[in-house]
């Protein structure tokens, strides 16, 4: 189907196995930017498990047909269509040769084969291979690939594809070739090729079984000095997967290639991972602590796909979370291990908090909107729209619940059985669930609902203490609340929820927990298996009324409703032994205060803050027993986006007013403590991207951010200017520039201009750093005299801005529309008109990127009436003008 085709709904219930299988694929490429000729030789046979078909139907997009042959003889009985090719009256088994051509230089969609900075790259997931040659482009058709690349030797000295290099040499007319063979069967979405002027950082390591492996990180020559961290991350990933899951690198060579034009973060093509430069390139001068951590996580994620996604892949795209949710869980566990190992529970908890913050801010919102869908969707129009937070992040939480239920050893047994059964196969989420169940001797039939029901479950908790009987009863009730219509359609019954709980006494100590009917206490945190609509659990030998610590370590992706008092939340923030719940208590306390203030702001009433939040923040800020990284997270206020979603009618202006008021009050009341925290957490000497050093920088820069909110931010301007001038790393330099922009908005004085100009001059030739420059300006607060949208419009005319580059579009347009809610949701609707302009412009260039931007307004019905009307008008304009099915699916669902 082409981008402009009439949308067709594809349903999971309609799945049928392919009528034909393709055992081997032999591809030959003559690489020329404007017209690359591709010859594919396929060994085809009928699928004995499928319904008989006389004709072979292959998918193809934007291809020029040159010729076809069967068993070496030209074959005329071929029909080409806009969306594919039909080979008529084929025998039961045959060799099909197809020759066609494509235009990589004109391919702005960045799907299929395209040119970036004069080099060739591919992106085939989900359906890009059909833009290269005609094929059964579906994940349950797995083949072995042999690939021959031919190109001009001067322009394209490096020729890469999946697997092992088996032959290379020179050709006439200054051309050369390379032949690659991948010994493992794979679906076409895992195919990759790269050709161009690239250089590599190389390492040779020995696997756990003693085999030598060649590791390469390929980049453009000027970026070679930024590859060490990616290489180290790859080596750490390989070692961790061997140790944690017994999974060894199965190829002789593993390659990572960085490209600046890329729709996603990275792609796990077998043995030849192609990455957005954002997740490869790093040195202290150009990358922040967050960049270093993200590179490690994404390198790990794509490497872990080698087994969870490549060796065992998806039967169909409805099973996408089979590989993505599982691999996100694996990369989260890897990152937690890298941040502090299994021994440092506080470091692991910090990583857990970071992951849950993302889930709740983004995936919970998705569950509440028109694009709500189960972890395993039931239907789609455009599969690219289902690379979602639900599939990835909620899918990861579903996988994590297996480990919560069975423990790490039980989870490992399930993984071992999964690979034993399904290595080399295309399978389903149910196959993974059955492996977990069988390995642990458990019935997980009810657990299937996590895959098939959309929406965020809500758990209401009530408690009862019986002083005479010394019992404490906890009653859990599960449901979904109002939710979205899209989610309600899928909800069939109660879920199997692992609910972790602790009980805390008046001194802040954890109580030993013994449930009614048990002979003895079993630990201080218990995982309750909550499987009914309502269920009561009774703890015995409880000497006095305790305070419950609910859903420890966020043991399930749910919302907990329990009526804690402010004093109880403050107590939990001070004493809970579960780091996640300690953080959660502070967030609840802050959210309660902020929403009350937002209501007053919306009503035009004066704002006044309680002392409770100041006292709670003061205790955390000055508690040296807490790690700097934990304190940084605990002292961050909930985001404006998250807060707006908690309101019955989202009012971004009121939320912004409330949040800024609280930030200023905290800055003023705790000024001396912020200044002391800044000084105590300076990291002198050479930059090190270690978790400990990053924690100190994070807390220091958070203190600077608060100080920049003061009515008189002279101290912040002084500190930020000195920090900017002396910085030996991008973390401190970018944080200083951000603080100056904050102070500029607070005072109206032009204190950031010199630093902005210097920043651009220093890093003009570093695209990823200039992305930061654009993003910082797009997310600044702005003023009534100069709203941020004026800055954004001016920056779109800047010589460094290029709408065709996804990173640049995200750094400016997405940052403004998705990360600056108060400015984007301006009362005059100017933000929505700008959004519509950009969605329409991007739709003509790159529908995948346009569709992601389109989702910014999918929750429009949740806003105040005046904003709703303007959003609807912008959505209707987009719906009338865009052509791609990617964007149309989003806006039509939003308007439905």
Automatic annotation (TrEMBL):
In this chain the Peptidase M1 alanyl aminopeptidase C-terminal domain maps to 567-896
Q: What is its EC number?
A: 3.4.11.2
From the UniProt record, give one GO term of the biological process aspect.
proteolysis
**Enzyme class, first EC level, given as a word:** hydrolase
Which InterPro entries does the record associate with it? Answer: Aminopeptidase_N-like_N (IPR045357), Aminopeptidase_N-like_N_sf (IPR042097), PepN_Ig-like_sf (IPR038438), Peptidase_M1 (IPR001930), Peptidase_M1_dom (IPR014782), Peptidase_M1_pepN (IPR012779), Peptidase_M1_pepN_C (IPR024601), Peptidase_M1_pepN_C_sf (IPR037144)
Gene Ontology MF terms: alanyl aminopeptidase activity; metallopeptidase activity; zinc ion binding
Metal-binding: is it a keyword of this entry? Answer: yes
Coiled-coil positions: none
> Boundaries of each Peptidase M1 alanyl aminopeptidase Ig-like fold domain copy?
455-563
Organism name: Paraburkholderia acidisoli
Q: Where is the Aminopeptidase N-like N-terminal domain?
A: 97-190
Q: Which NCBIfam families does the entry mention?
A: pepN_proteo
Which branch of life, at top level? Bacteria
* Key words of the record: Aminopeptidase, Hydrolase, Metal-binding, Metalloprotease, Protease, Zinc
Please give the cofactor(s) recorded in the UniProt entry for this protein.
Zn(2+)
**What is this protein identified as?**
Aminopeptidase N
Q: Which reaction does it catalyse?
A: Release of an N-terminal amino acid, Xaa-|-Yaa- from a peptide, amide or arylamide. Xaa is preferably Ala, but may be most amino acids including Pro (slow action). When a terminal hydrophobic residue is followed by a prolyl residue, the two may be released as an intact Xaa-Pro dipeptide
| Function comment | Aminopeptidase N is involved in the degradation of intracellular peptides generated by protein breakdown during normal growth as well as in response to nutrient starvation.
Domain Peptidase M1 membrane alanine aminopeptidase, residue spans: 230-450
Q: What's the family?
A: Belongs to the peptidase M1 family.
């Amino acid at each position: 189907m082409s981008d402009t085709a009439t949308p067709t709904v594809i349903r999971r219930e309609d799945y049928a196995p392919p009528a034909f299988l393709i055992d081997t694929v032999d591809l030959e490429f003559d690489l020329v930017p404007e017209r690359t000729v591709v010859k594919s030789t396929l060994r085809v046979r009928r699928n004995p498990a499928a319904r008989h078909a006389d004709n072979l139907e292959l998918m193809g997009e934007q291809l020029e047909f040159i010729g076809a042959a069967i068993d070496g003889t030209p074959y005329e009985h071929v029909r080409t269509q806009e969306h594919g090719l039909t080979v008529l009256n084929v025998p039961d088994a045959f060799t099909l040769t197809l020759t066609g051509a494509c235009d990589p230089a004109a391919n702005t969609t960045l799907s299929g084969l395209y040119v970036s900075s004069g080099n060739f790259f591919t992106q085939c997931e989900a359906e890009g291979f059909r833009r290269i040659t005609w094929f059964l482009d579906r994940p349950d058709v797995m083949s072995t690939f042999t690939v021959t690349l031919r190109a001009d030797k001067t322009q394209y000295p490096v020729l890469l594809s999946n697997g092992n290099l088996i032959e290379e040499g020179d050709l006439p007319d200054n051309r050369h070739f390379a032949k690659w063979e991948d010994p493992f069967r794979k679906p076409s979405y895992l195919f990759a090729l790269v050709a161009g002027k690239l250089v590599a950082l190389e390492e040779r390591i020995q696997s756990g079984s003693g085999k030598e492996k060649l590791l390469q990180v390929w980049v453009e020559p000027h970026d070679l000095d930024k590859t060490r961290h990616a290489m180290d991350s790859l080596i750490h990933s390989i070692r961790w997967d061997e140790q944690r899951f017994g999974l060894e690198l199965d190829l002789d060579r593993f390659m990572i290639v960085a490209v600046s034009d890329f729709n996603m973060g990275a792609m796990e093509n077998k043995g030849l991972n192609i990455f957005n430069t954002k997740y490869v390139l790093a040195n202290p001068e150009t990358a922040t602590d967050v960049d270093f951590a993200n590179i490690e996580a994404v390198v790990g994620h794509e490497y872990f796909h080698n087994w969870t996604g490549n060796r065992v892949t998806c039967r169909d795209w409805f099973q996408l979370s089979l590989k993505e949710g599982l691999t996100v869980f694996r990369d989260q566990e890897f990152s937690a291990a890298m941040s502090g190992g299994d021994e440092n529970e506080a470091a692991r908890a910090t990583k857990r908090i970071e992951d849950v913050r993302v889930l709740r801010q983004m995936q919970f919102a998705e569950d509440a909107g028109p694009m709500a869908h189960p972890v395993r969707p039931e239907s789609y129009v455009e599969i690219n729209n289902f690379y979602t937070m639900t599939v990835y992040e909620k899918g990861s939480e579903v996988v994590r619940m297996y480990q919560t239920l069975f423990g790490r050893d039980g989870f490992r047994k399930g993984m071992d059985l999964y690979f034993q059964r399904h290595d080399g196969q295309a399978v389903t989420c149910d196959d993974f669930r059955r492996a977990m169940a069988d390995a642990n001797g458990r019935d997980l039939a009810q657990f299937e609902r996590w895959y098939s029901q959309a929406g965020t479950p809500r758990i209401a908790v009530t408690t009862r203490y019986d002083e005479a009987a010394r019992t404490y009863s906890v009653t859990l009730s599960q449901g979904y609340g109002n939710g979205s219509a899209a989610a309600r359609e899928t909800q069939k019954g109660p879920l199997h929820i692992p609910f972790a709980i602790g009980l805390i006494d008046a001194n802040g100590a954890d109580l030993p927990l013994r449930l009614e009917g048990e002979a003895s206490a079993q630990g201080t945190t218990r995982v309750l298996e909550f499987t009914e609509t309502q269920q009561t659990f009774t703890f015995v030998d409880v000497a006095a009324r305790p305070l419950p610590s609910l859903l420890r370590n966020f043991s399930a992706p749910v919302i907990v409703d329990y009526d804690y008092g402010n004093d109880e939340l403050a107590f939990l923030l001070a004493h809970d032994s579960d780091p996640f719940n300690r953080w959660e208590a502070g967030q609840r306390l802050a959210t309660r205060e902020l929403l009350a203030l937002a209501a007053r702001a919306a009503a035009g009433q004066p704002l006044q803050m309680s002392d409770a939040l100041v006292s709670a923040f003061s205790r955390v800020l000055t508690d040296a027993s807490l790690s700097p990284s934990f304190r940084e997270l605990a002292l961050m206020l909930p985001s404006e986006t998250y807060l707006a979603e908690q309101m019955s009618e989202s009012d971004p202006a009121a939320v912004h007013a409330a949040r800024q008021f609280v930030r200023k009050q905290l800055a003023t009341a705790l000024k001396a403590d912020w200044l002391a925290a800044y000084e105590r957490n300076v990291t002198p000497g050479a930059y090190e991207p270690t978790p400990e050093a990053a924690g100190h920088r994070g807390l220091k820069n958070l203190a600077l951010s608060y100080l920049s909110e003061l009515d008189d931010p002279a101290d912040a301007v002084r500190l930020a200017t000195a920090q900017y001038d002396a910085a030996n790393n991008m973390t401190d330099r970018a944080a200083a520039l951000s603080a100056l922009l904050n102070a500029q908005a607070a005072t109206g004085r032009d204190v950031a201009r010199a630093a902005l100009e210097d920043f651009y001059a220093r890093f003009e030739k570093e695209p990823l750093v200039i992305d930061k420059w654009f993003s910082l300006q797009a997310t600044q607060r702005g003023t009534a005299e100069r709203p941020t949208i004026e800055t954004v419009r001016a920056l779109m005319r800047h010589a460094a801005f290029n709408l065709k580059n996804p990173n640049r579009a995200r750094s400016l347009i997405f940052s403004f529309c998705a990360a600056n809610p108060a400015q984007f949701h301006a009362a005059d609707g100017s933000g929505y008109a700008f959004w519509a302009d950009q969605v329409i412009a991007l739709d003509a260039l790159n529908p995948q990127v346009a569709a992601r931007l389109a989702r910014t307004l999918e929750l429009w019905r949740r806003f105040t009436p005046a904003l709703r009307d303007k959003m609807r008008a912008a959505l209707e304009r987009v719906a009338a003008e865009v052509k791609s099915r990617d964007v149309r699916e989003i806006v039509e669902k939003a308007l439905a």
